[in-house]
Structure formats: structure tokens, C-alpha cells
Amino acid sequence: MIDIIYRIGHFVLITVFSMALGLLFMGIARKIVARIQKRYGPPVYQPYLDVLKLFGKDAITHGFIFDFGAIMALGGVIATLFFIPLGSWQLYSMEGTVILVIYLLAIASLGMAMGTVGSGNPQASVGISRALMQMLGYELPYLVILFALIYRYQTSSVWGLMQAQAGSFLNWNLFAYPLMAAVAFVVLIGMMGKKPFDSMIAPSEIGSGPVVESGGKYLGMLLLQKSITIIIELALYVNLFLGGAENILIFTFKMLIVWVLATMFGSLFPRFRIEDGIKFFWKWPLGIAILQAIYIIT
Amino acid sequence: MNNNFVKGSWQEILDWAQNKSINMLHYCTGCGAIELPPTMTSRYDMSRFGIGPAATPRQADLLLVTGYLSTKTLRRLIYTYEQMQAPKFVVGFGSCTINGGMYWDSYNTIKQLDKYLPVEMYIAGCMPRPEAILDGLLKLKKMIADGEADGYQRYQDNLEYYHQNQEAVLGEVQRTQ
Amino acid sequence: MRNEKDLLQLMNAHFEPLKLEIKRKQNVSVEFKKEELIQALSFLKSHSYRHLSTISCVDWPEEGEFELVYHLFSYDDLINISLKTRIKRDPGIFQTAKEIWPVAEFYERDIHDFFGVKFKGNDNLEELILENWQEIPPMRKDFDTRKFVNDKYEWRDYNGQKHTD
Amino acid sequence: MDKNTQTEIFFGPNHPGVPGNYGINYEFEGDTVTSARANAGHLHRGFEKLMEERIWIKNTALVPRICVEEPDINEMVYAMGFEAIGEIEVPRRADYIRSIILELARIQGHIFSIGGNAAGIGQYTVMHWGTLTRDYLLDIFEEITGARVYHIYIRPGGVRQDIEDETLDKILDLMDELENERFPDLQKALFENPNAQKRWQGKAVITKEEAIEMGATGPVLRANGVPHDLRKMMPYAAYDDVEFEVPTGENGDAWDRIKIARDDMLQSIKIIRQLINKIPDGPVQADLGNGLKYKIPKGDAYVKIESKRGEYGYYMVSDGSLKPYRVHVRGASTPLGLYGVREFLPGTRIADVPVWAKSLGICPPEFDR
Amino acid sequence: MANDKKSIFSPVTAFKNLVKKPETVRYPAESNDAAKRYRGFHINDLEECIGCSTCQEVCVNDAISMVEMLDVPAEEGQRNERPQIDYGRCCWCGLCVDVCTTGSLEMSRDYSYIDLDPDTFIVTPAENDINQVEHPLGYLRDQSSDLLDLKRIEMEMLEPEERIDSFIEIVEGFSKEQAEKEASRCVECEICTETCPANMNIPQYIRGIFDDDLEESLQQIYEDNPLPEVCGRVCTHKCEGVCALSHRGEAISIRWLKRYAVDNVDSAEYKQVLGTEKIEQNNKKVAVVGAGPAGLSAAHYLSVMGYQITVYESKEKAGGMMRYGIPEYRLPYDALDKDIDYIESLGVNFVFNTRVGEDIELKELHENYDAVFAATGLHNGRSTRVPGTENNNVYQAVNLLADIARGKEVPVTKRLVVIGGGNVAMDIARSMARIQKDKYGEVDITVTSLETEDIMPADQEEIDEAREEGIVFKPGRGPKEIEINEDGSLAHLCTNCCVSVFDEDMNFNPTYDNSDIENYECDMVIEAIGQGGDNSYIDDQFEIEYAGPRIKINDYSQTSVNWLFAGGDIARGPDVINAIKTGHDAAVGIDKYLNDSLK
């Protein structure tokens, strides 16, 4: 019984922590992009204020599916937190969590898709169709990498993969398989929807895509969902390629470095058109991933 | 749209949050909009105050009426305003929104903005400089924080007055709710 | 590479223009009867005057006429030629130049919006710039914009402070 | 295309991707536009009617408001129209100052539209830099004319006030700064950026025949290798005293047009330097007598100059009274904004609609007037 | 054109900005204030502003309107109205600053004014702008941005050598282009109308000249002034003194424009233009005593109203002081006759060589006519009565001028002295100079006056032109005595220094300093120190009230005797235009009196 209370407490702690950290990271990203653009940019705690304001505003619902979509997106993403080790915190570390995480992330995107279809705005539907196509784009190389790793370390639990890199930093996967880490980094940018691959929320083409109809608390929920997604994807990358960390501080620091690099890299490039984005994913990243996989298998 | 306000401290917190982060609708209705890019981008950078552009009316709190309004734009502006969520604010830029400005004898522009939409404040200028815009927005933030920015409330209370004026100029206007 | 005089001689040779005028360097204006104008347009187009800048309309209420002015430019001669013609004000009908320059359809639509001139052959003449406009076309001289504004809108008197003498 | 696979999108007038207050209603299937039509008229203030109500000098304040990106072009064409009908000689120094102002306006117009194009494809960094650079040019304008955007500076008969020497030096310093720091940054960040090249190359192609047929001029025409520039073909102000090349492109796509915008700016810097070095002394305003009683004989004239988007012309008619009898404004992007949308937009991808609209430099107040 | 190589690493230059200081102006902490020439909110110097409303006329957006300012006095040459600017209309174009006639309206560098209530966006700018905060000056009009045409059109005049030889008119008058260019300078602010004693519609008739519509000009002139040819030449033109353009430039030559308008309309068309072909008579009769400017003006307006007018004139021709007081080089007789002939053609009959009081009594006029207008003017020269003035070589200027006008032979000597500082002194001095030049070949005339040159009543142009014609001025001298030789001829005029002319409350009581004596040899002295009138023809028969030396009249020129109206120098001086004004008021008064709507 105590075990359940402990797990619930642990779960609530992780959710709140990752939300707060995610928003902080978004604030830092805005600051970095601002500095590149020769300006000061909003204060770092600005996302917290945005979320608080959004929850204070009225919002128009477009029917049950629209509401359910937002909740499902947030719920799906929080569910994936169970299976990702954040430094030493770990809820479930059984086998197969890698596949489970990929599957749950897909649920979150589908939730958002359902919500936007409910909104009935053509620009939203164009946006969400782009998001799903882009998912298709980056899922392929990512799966190849994951299967390669699973095959290499003979375990399909994220915790297991993270433990496999224990010991000195030399046997982090980043150094063991640098090419695969680079591909994963590019895929990471695609998954987070950062700059070169953000055609799904392109304001100048389709008026901020799927979220075009959601204001007030719906936008607040989607913002939180985005913050948790950032933390999840960064955590996955750090666990798989930077060997996780003993305590949460080092883990956060590693995530921060990866996040800053992704932001800086992203702010230089205009966005791909959706089909160019997918072609890009299927050309280089997929090729390298397959080569790396073959190298591992033989 | 019955917005039930919970009076007391919760409202103050919301007002405080609202003034810290304002989303300005990216819709340049008139010629004054040319002074918005310098204000939004690196030279005067209004995002320092938490004010940033929003692509759609749903996400926007602040509607800047930058200068004159032709009747065609007025119709779309009313649809936009009604799509925005309370609390929402309208700020009038330049002389055209006060008394017709340069186009006081033009057959296609409206002369007084506050007959059609509730206006929080006016910024003098033709068109106002970025510094004047920032002064205005800072004053707006203070007003929101003190809970004085109640334009949307005024719009609700005398809806009939606004609808009448709008129909006087535009003929029939499609109402959402 | 014709100069202004050659161009006028060319016009004289092929049409009976009512008036020929060299306005300034590289600027010529020729006035035609209404019947001849459209042929003149296509004739000039075939003689290197392929650029149609715009079509202007001027309202002469005393003479009861609209004056249509077609501005052409040649990238070889580098000369600007304004072809003018007069049409009666009340029927206000003229042939379209759509077949020669498809873009003329929109210039004609714009003139229809503001002057009420109907162009035979240009079928989509519905409102381009104005939106459900009930008055007479606004750019006509007999449309008094100040009276219209006085009736439809009122100006602010700054609760009594504005001193209007 | 049967109805159920077709959806209509109102792209504008309230849309970040659209240039100014202007709507393009297009139908699309899958990700390609099938038919489109311009929804113009949102910025119509009836300029031509207002101008007929005001005496000549008053219109100098009204005219720059027509096109907000390039107010000086309107002031210049209005002044040239007045001088053409009235056969008024402008002092040589005024011609030089006018050319300097027009070239400065061209640079700020181009840098702003390059920023706009970059924002259209998501490169916000260049948009911020572009607007920042433009703001330094506005400071110069403020120093010369007394206002940031609407200068009301070029007046029939010359210019309003003289440019002091230290302002001329400031202009030269700014030109150096642009050429040595800001433009190289821009070159690397945008023009050598593979994504940007991919997003613009081959998009929104308008061939030479289509452009000439439609009456489109400026970068749209020059992108097809045709060096047509009114500053060379019909020299006005002080353009006959300066040498400069007319940049051209090859295949008439968005990429060439944006490259022309950049090369135009480099040429403008060259022109401004020559003008400032050779500027003569003397008065800057012809003596036309009492401002309230400007009067020119009966007559009409079509005057046009090279704005950054192409030919910008006024057809002005005077009946010898104190007020213009008729002024017809021909904006540079009129053919594109109305006719071009219907003819050349179908077939482009949805993602490229903002690229299409912004790279062609559609400026709605020009045809709404 | 750089070769646009594609490379994924070239955008990396952007990262250098991470270390550099951002270029944001962190307003409101830091602020680069507006440029030197910035067009901000308006400020206006209320003392310097004369309320001429030219800014209102040039305002593009009808943003400026004139507001009554009670604490500002509405004296000569300015109104008590000041511009009020509606910032719900203003577009900060600065045209009002460019056109401001006094240069009082300026622009500060302040640009920020925000308010919830739109009704506060209106202000009457004073020395602080709408924010009531001191701000540095912004946009300043300069020589090339000035919208006013400050330079007057040069009027061709005869050269001094040429004009001394004859009595031909000096001022040649405007050509068509000159007149239209001069007329184009007028900003139609109507400040001159309020200052002109006759309140003539000056901007209206100048606009007629500008529009090349001289009929319109003539109608506008004749509304208030029936003697335009005269006034076009000799009026004291107070209007040009207060003309709005005179503050920063040269006033408009209003007088010469009036002359141009009237010169170029053929007198045959007058009736047709002024619509006086047929005037329905109302068979009432009015007598006018004296055919001077006042008499003629009353005669004209009464006859236009349909009254039957008879003018009794003591001299042999009509014109009064205009003919017999003003020499021909200033007012040619054909111009004077053009005005008089038109008045005569309206049906006014003149009775010459009949002096009321001698040939006919005022009582008879009272019986035979419904009303009488007395305008006999001041024709007797006053004398200084210093010792020696009784000598026959001492003459009165007025009599000499009358004789010159009649073409009679006038005694003139090689050297002569004129005592007096007004226009009459100038006229007689310059006339005698012409006669001397004609008779002796050279000019030797000295003019002494109590007043120093700056307070001499004569027009400054007259003094300058006289000096050009060789006349010597000795201002500030009091005439003490005329030395006479034994044979009756004059030796010299002995003068002392006149310290002050008027005492503190401005009435005439000169003080002298006898230690400074100067003598001027001369063989002839002409006194031109003022004229007196002989009102005996009234006083003997009727009780009438006086106000000082002049007859007391009300606004309708009615004297204390209700059927008797009076005008001109005997009732109100000092110049032609005031005479015309009193004549016009009398006409209106008589019309009211005879329709008994005046007691």
C-alpha cells in the first residue's frame, strides 16, 4: 500500500518537475534566440506567466472531441513520464519501455490531432496533417537507431540501456556510435518541432497550425504538453546517448546543453516545406542509421 | 459567453498575470502598422515586457487598431474582435481613430473608433513612434494590473449601442453567438 | 528605334487621330475617335508598345463626357504614349481591351467601380475595391464626398471644446 | 476538381503571412492551390477623391500615405507631375537631394522586404536584422526631414529644407557600415543558407513574356535577365549624373527577385556615394510664390519613376485651378496583386503562398488607394 | 553579385551576436530622443501670434480652428483669436509652421501623449505643448521651406531727376503679370479689412485680380469706397501697416492693387458691372454741402439708394482737397475725374461757385431738402503768428496749392522755407521744387518742422522722395521769428530747438530751448502747419455741439441737429478714407432717418 502512495507521490513530483523545467527551458530558448537576433528578449520566467495568464482567460470549446483531444494529448505525454528515468528517479524499469515510450508519444500526437479536427478550421487540419507526416518522417530513422541499440545491449528497457553505458564517459553511446548520436540529435529537433522542422505550426502559412482555434486554457494545456514533451525527448536522448546521470542535477545540466545546442542550431535555418523535411529525414539520417545498424549487427 | 468572475484575490492574480504577458494580434489594419515591426523587433523589442505577436484572434488579448479603418476592414475587425476571448483590449493608434485623422472627409473610412468598438486608450501620433507605442503599452499594462482595463465589459454592457452603430455603417453584420 | 516624331507620323499614317501632341521628352499623347482606339491599341502592341501601364478615366461633367486614357510604353523606343478618347457620360459604354491585354480586365473593373463605365465584353464587372456601395460611383465629380460624410458620420466635438466657426 | 475534395482558405486579411491588409481567397486540394482570387479593397480611403478637394500644397501631406513602405516615391511622382505640367525647373541641388532620398528609401524598402520574405519562410533572425537596419535608415530620414516614415519632404519645385553637411557625413558612415558589416552578415545568414535557397529557388516563377504581358516591371521583369530600369530608360532627378549597373536574374523565380533586391541595395549605396561627392551648392526650392496659391496651367501628364517594386506612375490632370482636377495612381504591384493572383498563384503549394505573395512585393494600398 | 555558394555553416556567423551587446534601445530606461528637426506637438507664442488664421487655411485635415482668447486684447492689427489644434485630426505635416505669418507657431520634439478619454486630444498650444512640459524646439521653418512669398513686386517709379521736371505721375502702376503675381501673395486673412477705416473687402478684390476677374474686384471695391482711383494713389494705407505679411516680409501693396483693378476697367462698363443702369428713385431730396471726398461718397451712396442729390460746391470744380490740396504728380486730374464723372452719371447734379452761407443759406436747404449733409472741409491755412508772418512774402500752403491746381501763376523765389511736417508740407515743398526747377533750373528749399523725422505725420515714402528731389530737411526746429529787411524783403527765418512736441498725456504743447538758435536765409516762407475750417454757415443759424475742434457726430454721422449730418475733416479727420467712411455712414444714416427708423 505504501508502495502505491510512494509511486503516486513520485509520479506527481516528476510531472510537476518536468512541467516547470520544460517551461524554464522554453524561456531560456527564447532568450538565446533573442540574443542571436541582437535583442534582449523576454525574461526567462516568461513562459510561466504565459501559462498562468492562459488559464485565467476564457476559452471557446468546439465540442467534446476538441476538449477530449487536448486532455488526451496532455495525458498521453504525462503517461510516458512513467517510463523514462530522470537521473536516479525511475518509476518503471521493466523490459520493453523503449517501445512503450514511442507508442505513448504517438498517442499524444494523435490526441492533438483529434482535438484540431474537432476545431473545424481548415488551417488546423492542414497543420495537423503536416505534423503527422513529419512524425512519419523522423520515426523511421529513430526506430532503426533504437533497434540497433536494443540489439547491441540486448535490453529493451531504457533503464537497462542507460545502465549499459555506466562507467567512464568513454563508453557513452555518443562516443561509441557518434554518427548515430548525430542522427538522433537531428531527429530530436524534428520531434520537438524546432525551427527547421516547424512547418506544422508555421504562422505565416497556416496561422500557427493545429493550435489556431485553441485559446485560453486549451492553449495552456497544449503549452504544458509541449513543455513535458521537450523534457521527455531530451531525457530520452540523454539516457540513450549521454549515459544518464546519477542524480537529477547532472541530468538536468546535460539536458540543458543538448537543448541549447538544438535551439542555436535551429534558429539559423528557415523551415523546410513538409515534403522536403521528410525527404531530408529519409535521405541522410535514415541512410546513416541503417549503415550504423549494419555495422552493429555484423 | 457568460464569464463568471470570481472576485477578490484570484482576480488580482489573473490581472497581474494578464499584464505580464499580453499577446498582440498580428493584424495591421491601417498604415500605422508600419511602426509595429520596429517596436516588435530588435530596435525597441517590446517582448521585453512580455508582449508578443499572436497569429490568430483566439490566442490574442490585445487588438491594435493602427490608424484608419475602411468600412470593409471594420466588418472584419468586428468579426475578429468577437472571436477574441475576454479579457481583451483594444488600443487606438493615431489621430484617425479619434476624429477621422487625415481621412476626415473620406467616404470609405469611419471617423470615431469608440462608436464601434470599446477602446481602452488612444496614442497620439500620425503615426505614433515606437517610443510612444511602448509608453502606451506600459500604461495599458498598469491599467490591466489595476483592473481598470474593462473595455470588453463595456462592450457586453451596452452591446445594443455598439451593434446599432455598426449596423448604421455596415448594413447587416453577421453575429456569432 | 523611333523618336517622338516618327511615332506621330506612324499614327497619322494608319489612323485619323483628332489631336497629336509631344508633351515632353519621351512623352507623347494622341487623341482618337472612340471607334478607332481599340485598333490603335492592338496596332501599337504589334509595334513594340507591349507594356500597358494603366488605364485612367477622367470625368468631364460640363462636356458630359468621360475621357479614357490608355498609357503604353515601348521597351525599344522608350517612349510613353497616352491614347485618349472621349465617351458619352450617360450610357458610358466602351469596348473592353481584354483581348489585347488580359490585365486590362482589372483596370476596367476598377474604373467601373469608381466611374460606372461599362465595358462591353468584360463580363466580371462586379465590385473590386468597394463593398456593397449604394451611392453613385464615388469618383464622379457630382458625388460630393463631404456632404456624404456629413450625413453618414459625425465628427467629434470633444464635448463642446472643439470650436468650429 | 469536384467540390468535396476542395476547401477554401481565407488567406488574409488578418494573417501574418500576407503582405499588409489584403486577402487572397484560394481553394486548394491536397497541398496545392487550385484557384485563387484577390480580396482587395481593405485599405481604400479614396485618395484620388480627397486629392481633388485639396489645394496643391496640401496634397504633399496626403500623398506619402498612399504606399506605406515607400512614402518618398509618392512624394516624388506627385512633385514631378506638378513640375511636368507647370514646366517648372528644379534647382540642381534639389535634384541631387531628391535622388539621395529616393535611394535611401530604396535601401530601407528592400531591406524591409528581404526581412519580410525571410519571415515568410521562417527565418526570423534575418527579419529582426532587416527591420533593425531599416530603423537606422529611419533615423537618418528623421534627421533630414523631421519625421521617421512620412517625410513630406519632396515638394513641387524642390525639397523642403537643405541637408546639412554633418548629416551627409552620417549617411556616408551608415553606407560604409551597411556595406562592410550588415550586408555580409545578411549574405551569410540568408543568401548562403541552403534551406533558404531551396525554399526560394524555382518558386513563383514569372517568365519575361508573362511579366511584359501583364505590365509588371521592376524585379519581376529584371529577374528574367532584362535590364529594364526607369532610372536608365527615362532618367529623372540626378540619375543621369551617376553610373550604376542594373542587376538582373536568370530564371524569374523568387530566389532571383530577392537576389536582385540585395544587389539593388549594393548599387544604391554606390549611387549615394557618388551623389554625395558630387552634390552642387545652391538653393533647394524653386520660388513658386505663395504656397496657398500654387497654380499651373491646364494640362495633363503621366509621370513615372522606378520604385523598388517597379514602375510607379501618376496620371495628373490640371484644369488651371488651385486644386488638381484628377490624379490617378498606378501602383507598381497593381497588375500582380489583382490579375497576377488569379493567373499565377494556382499550382503553387500552400507552403509557398506567402513566399509567392511576399517575393512579388504585393503592396495592397497601391491598388486600393 | 557574390557567387551564392551553398554551405550549411555560413549562417553560423549569427552566433557572434550571442557575445555582442544587443542593439536594442531599452526604452523607457534608455531613449535616443528625437532628431533636431523632429515634427512633434505644437507650441505657440500667444503674444507674437496675431490670430490671422492662415494656419487654419493651410491645414490639410481641418484640424486647426480659431478660438476666442478673452485675456488677449484685440487691438489694431491682431485679433483675440488663437489657433486650437485637434490632435484627432492633425497629421504633423508642419505646413502650418511653414506658412505662419509671424513665425509664432512652432513644433517641439515631444511625441508621446496617451489618454483614455479621446476628448482630451484637443489643445490651444501656448509656450508649452499638450503635455504642459517644457521640450526643446523641433522643426523650424527656414528660408527654403517658407511657404509665404515675402518679397514685394518692385513698382517702377520715375527717376528723381526725371520726375522733378514735371507734374507727371510718379508711380507707373502694375502690369497684368505684376498685379497677378502681387495678388497671389495675399493669404486672405482679412486682418487688413478690420484695420481699414472703411472696412473695405480687401482680400475679396485682391482675389478678383488673382482670378483675372476685374468685374468682381470692382464690385467688391465699390461696396465701401466710391473713389477708388483716388484712394488707389493717395490713401494713407494703414492696411499695409498691419498686413500679416509685414511681420516677416514686405506687406502686400494693397493700394496699388486697388489702383490696378480700377485702372483696367473701362468707365463705360461701370454701370453695367455695378448694376446701376437704372435706379428706381424714391423722390426724396438730399442736399450735400461741399464736393470733397466725404460729400462725393455720401452723394454716391444716397443716389444709389434712389435719392435725388444736389451738391453745392464753393469752388469751380468738384473734388475739394483732392483736387486743390493734392498735387498732380500724386493724383492726376484724369483719375480724379474718372471717379467724379461716374458719380455724376448716377444723376447727382452739382451746383458750382455757390458758397453756402453766402450765395445760399443753410436754412433754405433745410426747407427745400429732406436732409442736409455738411462736408465743407478745412480750407483755410493756419498761421504760426510768429513776428514777421504778416509780411506779404509769407504765404499759406493751402492757397498756393489751390492756385497751382487751377494752373495760375504762383510767386516763387530762388530760396524759400516751408514750415510744417505733414503731407501738405511735403506736397507744397515738392510742388514748389518743380516750379523752381522749371524757373531757375535748380532747387533750394528747406523744410523745418517741430517734430523730429521719426514722428513727422507725413508718410515716410513722401519724405524720402522729397529728399531725393533735392529738398533739405531741418526737423526738430521751432519757428521763432522772421527777420525782415528794410525794403520789406525777408532776411532769414530764426528758429530755436524744439525739445518736445507733446506732453505726457499726448496733447500738443511744445517746449523749446532758446539757447540753440539757427537762421535760414530765404526770400519767401510758406506755412503748412494745419488747416482750419469756417463753419460759420452752420453756427450762425443753428445750435450745434462740438467735440473739441470738430463737430460731434454719432455712428451715422448725425450731428446734434437731427436733419443735419456732417462728415469729412470738419467732423472726423485726418485723411481721405475717413472722409469717405463718414460720407458712407451719413448715407446710411440719412436713409434710416428718412425712413424714420432713426430719431
Automatic annotation (TrEMBL), chain A:
InterPro entries: ComplexI_Subunit1, NADH_UbQ_OxRdtase_su1/FPO
UniProt GO cellular component terms: plasma membrane
Extent of the signal sequence: none
Transmembrane segments: 6-29, 64-84, 96-115, 136-154, 174-193, 223-242, 248-268, 280-297
Subcellular localization, as worded in the UniProt entry: Membrane
Keyword field: Membrane, Transmembrane, Transmembrane helix
Membrane topology designation: Multi-pass membrane protein
Protein name: Membrane bound protein complex subunit mbxM
Automatic annotation (TrEMBL), chain B:
Protein name per its UniProtKB record: Membrane bound protein complex subunit mbxJ /NADH dehydrogenase subunit B
MF GO annotations: 4 iron, 4 sulfur cluster binding; metal ion binding; NADH dehydrogenase (ubiquinone) activity; quinone binding
Record's keyword annotation contains DNA-binding: no
Cross-referenced PANTHER family: NADH DEHYDROGENASE (PTHR11995), NADH DEHYDROGENASE [UBIQUINONE] IRON-SULFUR PROTEIN 7, MITOCHONDRIAL (PTHR11995:SF14)
Example GO biological process: electron transport coupled proton transport
Protein family per UniProt: Belongs to the complex I 20 kDa subunit family.
Domain annotation NADH:ubiquinone oxidoreductase-like 20kDa subunit: ranges: 28-140
Pfam (any one): Oxidored_q6
Keyword terms: 4Fe-4S, Iron, Iron-sulfur, Metal-binding, NAD, Quinone
Signal peptide segment: none
Species per Swiss-Prot/TrEMBL record: Halanaerobium kushneri
InterPro entries from the UniProt entry: NADH_UbQ_OxRdtase-like_20kDa, NADH_UQ_OxRdtase_20Kd_su
GO cellular component: a single term: respiratory chain complex I
Superkingdom of the source species: Bacteria
From TrEMBL, chain C:
InterPro entries: NADH_quin_OxRdtase_su_C/D-like, NADH_UbQ_OxRdtase_30kDa_su
Cross-referenced Gene3D superfamilies: NADH:ubiquinone oxidoreductase, 30kDa subunit
GO molecular function: NADH dehydrogenase (ubiquinone) activity
Domain NADH:ubiquinone oxidoreductase 30kDa subunit: 31-148
Pfam families assigned: Complex1_30kDa (PF00329)
Family: Belongs to the complex I 30 kDa subunit family.
Matching PANTHER family: NADH DEHYDROGENASE [UBIQUINONE] IRON-SULFUR PROTEIN 3, MITOCHONDRIAL (PTHR10884:SF14), NADH DEHYDROGENASE UBIQUINONE IRON-SULFUR PROTEIN 3 (PTHR10884)
Entry protein name: NADH-quinone oxidoreductase subunit C
UniProtKB/TrEMBL annotation, chain E:
UniProt cross-references to SUPFAM superfamilies, sorted A to Z: 4Fe-4S ferredoxins, alpha-helical ferredoxin, Nucleotide-binding domain
GO molecular function terms listed in the Swiss-Prot or TrEMBL record: iron-sulfur cluster binding; metal ion binding; oxidoreductase activity
4Fe-4S ferredoxin-type domain boundaries: 39-69, 81-110, 177-208
Record keywords: Iron, Iron-sulfur, Metal-binding
Gene3D superfamilies: 3.30.70.3270, Alpha-helical ferredoxin, FAD/NAD(P)-binding domain
Origin superkingdom: Bacteria
Iron keyword on record: yes
InterPro entries in alphabetical order: 4Fe4S_Fe-S-bd, 4Fe4S_Fe_S_CS, DPD_II, FAD/NAD-bd_sf, FAD/NAD-binding_dom, Helical_ferredxn
PROSITE patterns tied to this protein: 4FE4S_FER_1, 4FE4S_FER_2
Identification of the protein by name: Glutamate synthase (NADPH/NADH) small chain
Protein species of origin: Halanaerobium kushneri
